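User: quick one
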Amino acid sequence: MTPKILPLNQLHNGKCGSCARNKLCFGRFLADSNAAEQLDFEISNRILHRGDHIFYSGQEFSSLYMVRSGHVKTVMVTEDGEEQITGFPGPGDSIGADGLAAGQYAVDAIALDTVSICTLHFDHLLRTSTGEEDVQRLLLTLFSEMIFGNEQLLLTLGKLDAQQRMATFLLKQSHAQLRNGCSPVSFTLAMSRADIGNHLNLAVETVSRLLTQFKQRGLIKFNRNDIDWLDIDGLANLSNRREYTLPQMAENLATAQLN
Amino acid sequence: MTPKILPLNQLHNGKCGSCARNKLCFGRFLADSNAAEQLDFEISNRILHRGDHIFYSGQEFSSLYMVRSGHVKTVMVTEDGEEQITGFPGPGDSIGADGLAAGQYAVDAIALDTVSICTLHFDHLLRTSTGEEDVQRLLLTLFSEMIFGNEQLLLTLGKLDAQQRMATFLLKQSHAQLRNGCSPVSFTLAMSRADIGNHLNLAVETVSRLLTQFKQRGLIKFNRNDIDWLDIDGLANLSNRREYTLPQMAENLATAQLN
DNA sequence: CGTTGACTTGAAATTTGTCAAGTTTAGTGG
DNA sequence: CCACTAAACTTGACAAATTTCAAGTCAACG
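Assistant: Done. Structure below.
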Protein backbone atom coordinates (compact mmCIF):
# COMPACT_ATOMS: atom_id res chain seq x y z
CA MET A 1 0.00 0.00 0.00
CA THR A 2 1.54 3.28 -1.09
CA PRO A 3 1.01 6.37 1.00
CA LYS A 4 -1.48 8.76 -0.55
CA ILE A 5 0.12 12.16 -0.45
CA LEU A 6 -2.34 14.99 0.01
CA PRO A 7 -1.53 18.71 -0.26
CA LEU A 8 -1.32 19.01 3.50
CA ASN A 9 0.86 22.02 3.84
CA GLN A 10 -1.41 24.18 1.78
CA LEU A 11 -3.15 26.67 4.02
CA HIS A 12 -6.89 26.94 3.84
CA ASN A 13 -8.85 29.86 5.19
CA GLY A 14 -12.53 30.40 4.63
CA LYS A 15 -15.41 27.96 4.86
CA CYS A 16 -14.82 24.51 6.26
CA GLY A 17 -16.86 23.01 3.43
CA SER A 18 -14.44 24.17 0.76
CA CYS A 19 -11.37 22.65 2.42
CA ALA A 20 -9.70 19.84 0.47
CA ARG A 21 -9.08 17.89 3.67
CA ASN A 22 -12.55 18.01 5.10
CA LYS A 23 -13.60 14.46 4.28
CA LEU A 24 -10.84 13.18 6.52
CA CYS A 25 -11.69 15.81 9.12
CA PHE A 26 -15.24 16.84 9.99
CA GLY A 27 -16.52 14.99 6.98
CA ARG A 28 -15.77 11.59 8.40
CA PHE A 29 -18.65 12.03 10.86
CA LEU A 30 -21.21 12.84 8.18
CA ALA A 31 -23.34 10.20 6.49
CA ASP A 32 -23.38 11.91 3.14
CA SER A 33 -19.96 12.90 1.87
CA ASN A 34 -21.53 15.79 -0.02
CA ALA A 35 -22.79 17.16 3.28
CA ALA A 36 -19.18 17.84 4.22
CA GLU A 37 -19.01 20.37 1.43
CA GLN A 38 -21.97 22.26 2.87
CA LEU A 39 -20.26 23.05 6.17
CA ASP A 40 -20.35 26.83 6.23
CA PHE A 41 -18.53 27.90 9.36
CA GLU A 42 -15.35 29.89 9.06
CA ILE A 43 -11.99 28.36 9.74
CA SER A 44 -8.54 29.81 9.81
CA ASN A 45 -5.45 27.81 9.31
CA ARG A 46 -1.96 28.15 10.62
CA ILE A 47 1.36 26.35 10.59
CA LEU A 48 3.28 25.52 13.76
CA HIS A 49 6.70 24.06 14.29
CA ARG A 50 8.16 21.52 16.67
CA GLY A 51 7.81 22.77 20.24
CA ASP A 52 5.26 25.49 19.47
CA HIS A 53 2.21 25.65 21.71
CA ILE A 54 -1.25 25.62 20.16
CA PHE A 55 -2.56 26.65 23.55
CA TYR A 56 -1.51 26.46 27.18
CA SER A 57 -3.18 24.79 30.10
CA GLY A 58 -5.15 27.38 32.04
CA GLN A 59 -5.49 29.68 29.05
CA GLU A 60 -9.01 30.96 28.44
CA PHE A 61 -11.03 28.66 26.19
CA SER A 62 -12.03 30.21 22.90
CA SER A 63 -11.64 27.71 20.09
CA LEU A 64 -11.57 24.12 19.06
CA TYR A 65 -8.77 22.97 16.81
CA MET A 66 -8.57 20.32 14.12
CA VAL A 67 -5.22 18.89 13.11
CA ARG A 68 -4.84 18.88 9.33
CA SER A 69 -1.35 17.44 9.22
CA GLY A 70 1.47 16.70 11.63
CA HIS A 71 1.29 15.52 15.21
CA VAL A 72 0.61 17.14 18.54
CA LYS A 73 0.94 16.07 22.17
CA THR A 74 -1.52 17.12 24.84
CA VAL A 75 0.01 17.32 28.30
CA MET A 76 -1.76 17.67 31.63
CA VAL A 77 0.31 18.88 34.56
CA THR A 78 -0.14 18.20 38.29
CA GLU A 79 0.35 20.91 40.88
CA ASP A 80 3.74 19.54 41.73
CA GLY A 81 4.82 19.66 38.10
CA GLU A 82 4.40 16.04 37.06
CA GLU A 83 3.26 15.67 33.48
CA GLN A 84 0.90 13.21 31.84
CA ILE A 85 0.63 13.06 28.08
CA THR A 86 -3.06 12.36 27.47
CA GLY A 87 -2.76 11.80 23.74
CA PHE A 88 -1.06 12.41 20.43
CA PRO A 89 -3.69 13.99 18.17
CA GLY A 90 -2.89 13.62 14.46
CA PRO A 91 -4.61 14.48 11.17
CA GLY A 92 -8.39 14.55 11.57
CA ASP A 93 -8.26 14.68 15.38
CA SER A 94 -9.65 17.58 17.38
CA ILE A 95 -8.07 19.38 20.30
CA GLY A 96 -9.41 21.68 22.98
CA ALA A 97 -12.80 20.19 23.80
CA ASP A 98 -11.70 19.64 27.39
CA GLY A 99 -11.57 23.40 27.88
CA LEU A 100 -15.23 24.23 27.35
CA ALA A 101 -16.62 23.05 30.68
CA ALA A 102 -14.23 25.00 32.90
CA GLY A 103 -13.71 27.87 30.46
CA GLN A 104 -10.00 27.19 30.26
CA TYR A 105 -7.93 24.59 28.47
CA ALA A 106 -7.01 21.63 30.64
CA VAL A 107 -3.82 20.65 28.83
CA ASP A 108 -0.85 22.11 27.00
CA ALA A 109 -1.08 21.29 23.29
CA ILE A 110 2.38 21.18 21.76
CA ALA A 111 3.42 20.52 18.17
CA LEU A 112 5.71 17.49 17.79
CA ASP A 113 6.66 18.32 14.23
CA THR A 114 5.44 20.76 11.59
CA VAL A 115 1.71 21.00 12.11
CA SER A 116 -1.05 22.51 10.03
CA ILE A 117 -3.98 23.30 12.24
CA CYS A 118 -7.50 24.67 11.82
CA THR A 119 -8.95 27.08 14.33
CA LEU A 120 -12.70 26.96 14.93
CA HIS A 121 -13.82 29.86 17.05
CA PHE A 122 -16.30 28.24 19.37
CA ASP A 123 -18.81 31.06 19.74
CA HIS A 124 -18.89 31.53 15.99
CA LEU A 125 -19.27 27.81 15.49
CA LEU A 126 -22.15 27.67 17.92
CA ARG A 127 -23.90 30.66 16.38
CA THR A 128 -23.46 29.35 12.87
CA SER A 129 -24.71 25.91 13.80
CA THR A 130 -27.85 27.10 15.58
CA GLY A 131 -30.70 25.52 13.70
CA GLU A 132 -28.36 23.13 11.90
CA GLU A 133 -29.19 19.78 13.46
CA ASP A 134 -26.50 18.00 11.44
CA VAL A 135 -23.73 20.29 12.63
CA GLN A 136 -24.89 20.05 16.21
CA ARG A 137 -24.83 16.29 15.99
CA LEU A 138 -21.42 16.46 14.38
CA LEU A 139 -19.98 18.52 17.22
CA LEU A 140 -21.42 16.23 19.84
CA THR A 141 -20.10 13.23 17.93
CA LEU A 142 -16.66 14.81 17.91
CA PHE A 143 -16.82 15.23 21.68
CA SER A 144 -18.23 11.74 22.13
CA GLU A 145 -15.32 10.30 20.20
CA MET A 146 -12.93 11.91 22.66
CA ILE A 147 -14.80 10.51 25.64
CA PHE A 148 -14.75 7.06 24.10
CA GLY A 149 -11.07 7.38 23.21
CA ASN A 150 -10.14 8.33 26.76
CA GLU A 151 -12.13 5.43 28.16
CA GLN A 152 -10.34 3.04 25.85
CA LEU A 153 -7.06 4.50 27.01
CA LEU A 154 -8.06 4.02 30.64
CA LEU A 155 -8.74 0.38 29.87
CA THR A 156 -5.44 -0.04 28.04
CA LEU A 157 -3.39 1.58 30.79
CA GLY A 158 -5.32 -0.04 33.59
CA LYS A 159 -5.65 -3.64 32.56
CA LEU A 160 -2.82 -4.39 30.13
CA ASP A 161 0.81 -5.05 31.03
CA ALA A 162 3.78 -3.18 29.57
CA GLN A 163 4.09 -5.39 26.50
CA GLN A 164 0.40 -5.22 25.68
CA ARG A 165 0.32 -1.46 26.14
CA MET A 166 3.24 -1.04 23.75
CA ALA A 167 1.65 -3.31 21.14
CA THR A 168 -1.66 -1.47 21.48
CA PHE A 169 0.08 1.86 21.06
CA LEU A 170 1.81 0.79 17.86
CA LEU A 171 -1.43 -0.56 16.45
CA LYS A 172 -3.22 2.66 17.28
CA GLN A 173 -0.60 4.66 15.37
CA SER A 174 -0.86 2.22 12.50
CA HIS A 175 -4.63 2.52 12.46
CA ALA A 176 -4.43 6.31 12.42
CA GLN A 177 -2.16 6.09 9.37
CA LEU A 178 -4.65 3.93 7.56
CA ARG A 179 -7.48 6.31 8.39
CA ASN A 180 -5.56 9.08 6.71
CA GLY A 181 -4.96 7.06 3.59
CA CYS A 182 -1.35 6.33 4.41
CA SER A 183 0.48 3.07 4.82
CA PRO A 184 -0.34 1.30 8.11
CA VAL A 185 2.96 -0.57 8.06
CA SER A 186 5.41 2.17 7.18
CA PHE A 187 5.46 5.51 8.94
CA THR A 188 7.44 7.76 11.25
CA LEU A 189 6.72 8.13 14.94
CA ALA A 190 6.58 11.85 15.71
CA MET A 191 7.11 11.41 19.43
CA SER A 192 10.20 10.47 21.43
CA ARG A 193 10.61 7.31 23.51
CA ALA A 194 10.24 9.51 26.58
CA ASP A 195 6.89 10.79 25.31
CA ILE A 196 5.68 7.27 24.56
CA GLY A 197 6.76 6.15 28.03
CA ASN A 198 5.05 9.05 29.71
CA HIS A 199 1.83 8.44 27.78
CA LEU A 200 1.80 4.70 28.47
CA ASN A 201 2.97 5.05 32.08
CA LEU A 202 6.21 3.20 31.39
CA ALA A 203 9.82 4.16 32.01
CA VAL A 204 11.79 5.22 28.92
CA GLU A 205 13.99 2.19 29.48
CA THR A 206 11.00 -0.14 29.35
CA VAL A 207 9.83 1.40 26.07
CA SER A 208 13.29 0.95 24.60
CA ARG A 209 13.55 -2.65 25.80
CA LEU A 210 10.11 -3.54 24.44
CA LEU A 211 10.80 -2.04 21.02
CA THR A 212 14.07 -3.94 20.83
CA GLN A 213 12.30 -7.11 21.91
CA PHE A 214 9.57 -6.65 19.28
CA LYS A 215 12.25 -6.14 16.66
CA GLN A 216 14.07 -9.30 17.71
CA ARG A 217 10.85 -11.29 17.59
CA GLY A 218 10.24 -10.01 14.06
CA LEU A 219 7.11 -8.08 14.99
CA ILE A 220 8.42 -4.78 13.75
CA LYS A 221 11.23 -3.33 11.66
CA PHE A 222 12.46 0.13 12.48
CA ASN A 223 15.38 2.45 12.63
CA ARG A 224 15.26 5.26 15.13
CA ASN A 225 11.71 6.62 14.72
CA ASP A 226 11.13 5.32 11.23
CA ILE A 227 8.96 2.23 11.20
CA ASP A 228 9.51 0.25 8.00
CA TRP A 229 7.14 -2.58 8.68
CA LEU A 230 4.99 -4.04 11.43
CA ASP A 231 3.17 -7.30 11.88
CA ILE A 232 -0.34 -6.10 12.58
CA ASP A 233 -1.75 -9.54 13.31
CA GLY A 234 1.18 -10.43 15.53
CA LEU A 235 0.89 -7.25 17.54
CA ALA A 236 -2.89 -7.56 17.77
CA ASN A 237 -2.37 -11.02 19.14
CA LEU A 238 -0.09 -9.67 21.84
CA SER A 239 -2.34 -6.76 22.70
CA ASN A 240 -5.48 -8.84 23.02
CA ARG A 241 -7.20 -6.49 20.65
CA ARG A 242 -8.70 -7.89 17.50
CA GLU A 243 -9.98 -4.48 16.44
CA TYR A 244 -6.60 -3.56 15.03
CA THR A 245 -6.06 -6.50 12.66
CA LEU A 246 -6.16 -5.55 8.98
CA PRO A 247 -9.51 -7.12 8.01
CA GLN A 248 -11.02 -5.62 11.13
CA MET A 249 -9.43 -2.25 10.48
CA ALA A 250 -10.84 -2.19 6.97
CA GLU A 251 -14.26 -3.02 8.35
CA ASN A 252 -14.04 -0.30 10.95
CA LEU A 253 -13.23 2.24 8.30
CA ALA A 254 -16.07 1.00 6.12
CA THR A 255 -18.69 1.29 8.87
CA ALA A 256 -17.26 4.63 9.93
CA GLN A 257 -17.92 5.93 6.44
CA LEU A 258 -21.52 4.80 6.63
CA ASN A 259 -22.18 6.90 9.70
CA MET B 1 -22.82 20.95 57.80
CA THR B 2 -26.12 19.08 57.77
CA PRO B 3 -27.12 17.11 54.72
CA LYS B 4 -29.84 18.77 52.72
CA ILE B 5 -32.39 16.10 52.00
CA LEU B 6 -34.20 16.52 48.71
CA PRO B 7 -37.20 14.50 47.53
CA LEU B 8 -34.96 12.31 45.42
CA ASN B 9 -37.08 9.25 45.15
CA GLN B 10 -39.98 11.13 43.72
CA LEU B 11 -40.36 10.30 40.07
CA HIS B 12 -40.53 13.13 37.61
CA ASN B 13 -41.83 12.75 34.09
CA GLY B 14 -42.44 15.63 31.74
CA LYS B 15 -40.34 18.69 31.01
CA CYS B 16 -36.83 18.91 32.37
CA GLY B 17 -37.48 22.51 33.42
CA SER B 18 -40.17 21.56 35.89
CA CYS B 19 -38.04 18.99 37.72
CA ALA B 20 -37.22 19.83 41.33
CA ARG B 21 -33.69 18.50 40.94
CA ASN B 22 -32.74 20.37 37.84
CA LYS B 23 -30.54 23.02 39.44
CA LEU B 24 -28.17 20.28 40.59
CA CYS B 25 -28.46 18.56 37.25
CA PHE B 26 -28.55 20.40 33.94
CA GLY B 27 -29.07 23.65 35.76
CA ARG B 28 -25.58 23.71 37.18
CA PHE B 29 -24.22 24.49 33.72
CA LEU B 30 -26.48 27.47 33.14
CA ALA B 31 -25.51 31.02 34.07
CA ASP B 32 -29.00 32.06 35.06
CA SER B 33 -30.69 29.72 37.49
CA ASN B 34 -34.06 30.72 36.06
CA ALA B 35 -32.91 29.45 32.69
CA ALA B 36 -32.92 25.96 34.13
CA GLU B 37 -36.67 26.23 34.50
CA GLN B 38 -37.06 26.97 30.82
CA LEU B 39 -35.58 23.68 29.65
CA ASP B 40 -38.40 22.22 27.63
CA PHE B 41 -37.27 18.80 26.49
CA GLU B 42 -39.08 15.72 27.68
CA ILE B 43 -37.60 13.43 30.27
CA SER B 44 -38.77 10.20 31.72
CA ASN B 45 -37.70 8.89 35.04
CA ARG B 46 -37.20 5.43 36.39
CA ILE B 47 -35.97 3.63 39.46
CA LEU B 48 -33.35 0.89 39.35
CA HIS B 49 -32.01 -1.40 42.01
CA ARG B 50 -28.58 -2.71 42.91
CA GLY B 51 -27.19 -4.74 40.02
CA ASP B 52 -29.68 -3.51 37.42
CA HIS B 53 -28.24 -2.40 34.10
CA ILE B 54 -29.11 1.05 32.76
CA PHE B 55 -27.66 -0.10 29.46
CA TYR B 56 -25.18 -2.68 28.19
CA SER B 57 -21.93 -2.22 26.33
CA GLY B 58 -22.58 -2.74 22.62
CA GLN B 59 -26.25 -1.90 22.92
CA GLU B 60 -27.50 0.59 20.33
CA PHE B 61 -27.15 4.19 21.47
CA SER B 62 -30.43 6.01 21.88
CA SER B 63 -30.39 8.15 25.00
CA LEU B 64 -28.32 10.07 27.48
CA TYR B 65 -29.02 9.52 31.15
CA MET B 66 -28.76 11.81 34.14
CA VAL B 67 -28.45 10.36 37.61
CA ARG B 68 -30.91 12.00 40.01
CA SER B 69 -29.99 9.96 43.06
CA GLY B 70 -27.98 6.89 43.89
CA HIS B 71 -24.74 5.68 42.37
CA VAL B 72 -23.77 3.85 39.22
CA LYS B 73 -20.63 2.19 37.93
CA THR B 74 -19.59 2.28 34.30
CA VAL B 75 -17.56 -0.74 33.22
CA MET B 76 -15.59 -1.23 30.04
CA VAL B 77 -14.69 -4.79 29.10
CA THR B 78 -11.73 -6.10 27.06
CA GLU B 79 -12.15 -8.89 24.54
CA ASP B 80 -10.68 -11.36 26.96
CA GLY B 81 -13.15 -10.35 29.64
CA GLU B 82 -11.05 -8.06 31.82
CA GLU B 83 -13.05 -5.20 33.27
CA GLN B 84 -12.16 -1.59 33.92
CA ILE B 85 -14.48 0.61 35.93
CA THR B 86 -14.22 4.00 34.25
CA GLY B 87 -16.23 5.91 36.83
CA PHE B 88 -18.90 6.06 39.51
CA PRO B 89 -21.48 8.57 38.28
CA GLY B 90 -23.64 10.00 41.06
CA PRO B 91 -26.39 12.63 41.37
CA GLY B 92 -26.02 15.28 38.65
CA ASP B 93 -23.66 13.20 36.52
CA SER B 94 -24.52 12.09 33.02
CA ILE B 95 -24.04 8.66 31.45
CA GLY B 96 -24.01 7.39 27.91
CA ALA B 97 -22.21 10.15 26.02
CA ASP B 98 -19.50 7.71 24.98
CA GLY B 99 -22.04 5.87 22.85
CA LEU B 100 -22.90 8.58 20.37
CA ALA B 101 -19.77 8.42 18.18
CA ALA B 102 -19.90 4.68 17.48
CA GLY B 103 -23.68 4.38 17.71
CA GLN B 104 -23.45 1.93 20.59
CA TYR B 105 -22.69 2.30 24.27
CA ALA B 106 -19.05 1.68 25.16
CA VAL B 107 -19.61 0.57 28.73
CA ASP B 108 -22.01 -1.34 30.95
CA ALA B 109 -23.79 1.05 33.30
CA ILE B 110 -24.81 -0.76 36.47
CA ALA B 111 -26.68 0.55 39.51
CA LEU B 112 -24.72 0.21 42.76
CA ASP B 113 -27.69 0.96 44.98
CA THR B 114 -31.20 2.25 44.40
CA VAL B 115 -30.92 4.73 41.58
CA SER B 116 -33.33 7.28 40.20
CA ILE B 117 -32.39 8.09 36.65
CA CYS B 118 -33.59 10.43 33.91
CA THR B 119 -33.73 9.29 30.31
CA LEU B 120 -33.11 11.88 27.61
CA HIS B 121 -33.91 10.48 24.21
CA PHE B 122 -31.08 11.84 22.12
CA ASP B 123 -32.89 12.44 18.85
CA HIS B 124 -35.69 14.20 20.66
CA LEU B 125 -33.18 16.24 22.62
CA LEU B 126 -31.37 17.27 19.46
CA ARG B 127 -34.56 18.17 17.63
CA THR B 128 -35.88 20.17 20.56
CA SER B 129 -32.63 21.99 21.09
CA THR B 130 -32.00 22.91 17.47
CA GLY B 131 -32.24 26.66 17.44
CA GLU B 132 -31.62 26.85 21.19
CA GLU B 133 -28.05 28.04 21.45
CA ASP B 134 -28.06 27.76 25.23
CA VAL B 135 -29.11 24.13 25.18
CA GLN B 136 -26.53 23.29 22.53
CA ARG B 137 -23.84 24.87 24.66
CA LEU B 138 -25.16 23.02 27.68
CA LEU B 139 -24.94 19.65 25.97
CA LEU B 140 -21.44 20.33 24.70
CA THR B 141 -20.44 21.49 28.19
CA LEU B 142 -21.79 18.26 29.62
CA PHE B 143 -19.66 16.28 27.15
CA SER B 144 -16.67 18.53 27.76
CA GLU B 145 -16.93 17.88 31.48
CA MET B 146 -16.64 14.16 30.83
CA ILE B 147 -13.59 14.61 28.63
CA PHE B 148 -11.96 16.74 31.30
CA GLY B 149 -12.90 14.28 34.03
CA ASN B 150 -11.37 11.37 32.15
CA GLU B 151 -8.19 13.31 31.53
CA GLN B 152 -7.93 14.10 35.22
CA LEU B 153 -8.40 10.44 35.94
CA LEU B 154 -5.64 9.52 33.49
CA LEU B 155 -3.35 11.90 35.35
CA THR B 156 -4.34 10.49 38.73
CA LEU B 157 -3.86 6.88 37.70
CA GLY B 158 -0.75 7.55 35.69
CA LYS B 159 1.33 9.78 37.90
CA LEU B 160 0.22 9.18 41.49
CA ASP B 161 1.19 6.24 43.69
CA ALA B 162 -1.29 3.97 45.47
CA GLN B 163 -1.62 6.20 48.54
CA GLN B 164 -2.16 9.36 46.52
CA ARG B 165 -4.70 7.68 44.28
CA MET B 166 -6.69 6.49 47.30
CA ALA B 167 -6.61 9.94 48.89
CA THR B 168 -7.66 11.55 45.62
CA PHE B 169 -10.53 9.09 45.27
CA LEU B 170 -11.86 9.83 48.76
CA LEU B 171 -11.64 13.57 48.15
CA LYS B 172 -13.48 13.21 44.86
CA GLN B 173 -16.32 11.39 46.61
CA SER B 174 -16.34 14.03 49.32
CA HIS B 175 -16.46 16.80 46.75
CA ALA B 176 -19.36 15.14 44.95
CA GLN B 177 -21.26 15.04 48.24
CA LEU B 178 -20.71 18.74 48.77
CA ARG B 179 -21.86 19.52 45.25
CA ASN B 180 -25.13 17.80 46.02
CA GLY B 181 -25.65 19.74 49.20
CA CYS B 182 -24.69 16.86 51.46
CA SER B 183 -22.01 16.61 54.09
CA PRO B 184 -18.52 16.24 52.60
CA VAL B 185 -17.23 14.49 55.72
CA SER B 186 -19.98 11.97 56.40
CA PHE B 187 -21.37 9.70 53.72
CA THR B 188 -21.62 6.12 52.55
CA LEU B 189 -19.48 4.62 49.82
CA ALA B 190 -21.81 2.87 47.38
CA MET B 191 -19.06 0.74 45.86
CA SER B 192 -17.16 -2.26 47.22
CA ARG B 193 -13.42 -2.36 47.93
CA ALA B 194 -13.07 -4.52 44.83
CA ASP B 195 -14.77 -1.83 42.72
CA ILE B 196 -12.54 0.88 44.16
CA GLY B 197 -9.48 -1.24 43.47
CA ASN B 198 -10.53 -1.98 39.93
CA HIS B 199 -11.20 1.70 39.26
CA LEU B 200 -7.91 2.87 40.76
CA ASN B 201 -5.88 -0.01 39.30
CA LEU B 202 -5.03 -1.39 42.73
CA ALA B 203 -5.47 -4.84 44.22
CA VAL B 204 -8.35 -5.18 46.70
CA GLU B 205 -5.76 -5.91 49.36
CA THR B 206 -3.98 -2.64 48.66
CA VAL B 207 -7.23 -0.70 48.99
CA SER B 208 -7.98 -2.39 52.28
CA ARG B 209 -4.48 -1.75 53.62
CA LEU B 210 -4.56 1.91 52.63
CA LEU B 211 -7.95 2.52 54.22
CA THR B 212 -6.74 0.88 57.42
CA GLN B 213 -3.58 2.94 57.31
CA PHE B 214 -5.54 6.17 56.78
CA LYS B 215 -7.73 5.26 59.74
CA GLN B 216 -4.70 4.62 61.95
CA ARG B 217 -3.16 7.93 60.93
CA GLY B 218 -6.40 9.69 61.88
CA LEU B 219 -7.17 10.82 58.35
CA ILE B 220 -10.53 9.12 58.20
CA LYS B 221 -13.09 7.46 60.46
CA PHE B 222 -15.21 4.72 59.01
CA ASN B 223 -16.99 1.48 59.65
CA ARG B 224 -17.51 -0.84 56.74
CA ASN B 225 -18.64 1.52 53.96
CA ASP B 226 -19.92 4.28 56.21
CA ILE B 227 -17.52 7.19 56.39
CA ASP B 228 -18.12 9.19 59.56
CA TRP B 229 -15.44 11.79 59.09
CA LEU B 230 -12.49 12.62 56.92
CA ASP B 231 -9.65 15.09 57.16
CA ILE B 232 -10.00 16.92 53.88
CA ASP B 233 -6.86 19.00 54.32
CA GLY B 234 -4.84 16.01 55.43
CA LEU B 235 -5.93 13.93 52.46
CA ALA B 236 -5.42 16.81 50.05
CA ASN B 237 -1.92 17.10 51.40
CA LEU B 238 -1.26 13.46 50.66
CA SER B 239 -2.81 13.55 47.23
CA ASN B 240 -0.94 16.65 46.10
CA ARG B 241 -4.20 18.21 45.08
CA ARG B 242 -5.16 21.52 46.59
CA GLU B 243 -8.37 21.64 44.60
CA TYR B 244 -10.10 19.42 47.11
CA THR B 245 -9.43 21.40 50.30
CA LEU B 246 -12.53 22.96 51.83
CA PRO B 247 -11.86 26.63 51.01
CA GLN B 248 -10.96 25.58 47.49
CA MET B 249 -13.98 23.33 47.20
CA ALA B 250 -16.25 26.19 48.23
CA GLU B 251 -14.62 28.43 45.66
CA ASN B 252 -15.00 25.82 42.93
CA LEU B 253 -18.68 25.53 43.68
CA ALA B 254 -19.07 29.31 43.69
CA THR B 255 -17.44 29.77 40.30
CA ALA B 256 -19.34 26.79 38.93
CA GLN B 257 -22.58 28.55 39.81
CA LEU B 258 -21.50 31.63 37.92
CA ASN B 259 -21.07 29.70 34.69
C1' DC C 1 -26.35 -20.80 63.86
C1' DG C 2 -24.08 -21.94 59.91
C1' DT C 3 -23.00 -20.34 55.34
C1' DT C 4 -21.57 -16.97 52.13
C1' DG C 5 -19.39 -13.00 50.47
C1' DA C 6 -16.76 -9.06 51.69
C1' DC C 7 -13.03 -7.56 53.91
C1' DT C 8 -8.43 -7.77 56.41
C1' DT C 9 -3.73 -9.10 57.31
C1' DG C 10 0.84 -11.22 56.65
C1' DA C 11 4.59 -13.19 53.77
C1' DA C 12 6.52 -14.20 49.35
C1' DA C 13 6.84 -13.16 44.40
C1' DT C 14 7.13 -10.33 40.28
C1' DT C 15 6.80 -6.72 37.18
C1' DT C 16 8.52 -2.53 36.28
C1' DG C 17 11.24 1.35 37.83
C1' DT C 18 15.65 3.37 39.14
C1' DC C 19 20.42 3.93 38.76
C1' DA C 20 24.56 3.79 36.21
C1' DA C 21 27.16 3.45 32.29
C1' DG C 22 27.56 3.24 27.62
C1' DT C 23 26.35 4.16 22.41
C1' DT C 24 24.44 6.44 18.63
C1' DT C 25 22.65 10.46 16.35
C1' DA C 26 21.93 15.13 15.09
C1' DG C 27 23.36 19.46 15.25
C1' DT C 28 27.30 23.12 15.56
C1' DG C 29 31.11 25.54 14.64
C1' DG C 30 35.89 25.62 13.45
C1' DC D 1 34.76 18.00 6.30
C1' DC D 2 35.71 16.80 10.84
C1' DA D 3 35.67 17.07 15.70
C1' DC D 4 32.74 18.23 19.58
C1' DT D 5 28.70 18.43 22.29
C1' DA D 6 24.19 17.51 23.82
C1' DA D 7 20.31 14.86 23.51
C1' DA D 8 18.15 10.64 22.65
C1' DC D 9 18.40 6.09 23.07
C1' DT D 10 20.09 1.40 24.70
C1' DT D 11 21.58 -2.05 27.93
C1' DG D 12 22.60 -4.30 32.37
C1' DA D 13 22.20 -4.85 37.40
C1' DC D 14 19.67 -3.92 41.32
C1' DA D 15 15.70 -2.02 44.05
C1' DA D 16 11.07 -1.10 45.16
C1' DA D 17 6.20 -0.74 44.96
C1' DT D 18 2.47 -3.41 44.47
C1' DT D 19 0.53 -7.89 43.44
C1' DT D 20 -0.33 -12.49 44.40
C1' DC D 21 -1.05 -16.14 47.43
C1' DA D 22 -2.68 -17.90 51.67
C1' DA D 23 -5.16 -17.74 55.69
C1' DG D 24 -7.90 -15.70 58.51
C1' DT D 25 -11.99 -12.45 60.48
C1' DC D 26 -16.26 -10.19 60.31
C1' DA D 27 -21.06 -9.25 59.18
C1' DA D 28 -25.36 -10.08 57.07
C1' DC D 29 -28.92 -13.25 56.05
C1' DG D 30 -31.66 -17.25 55.55
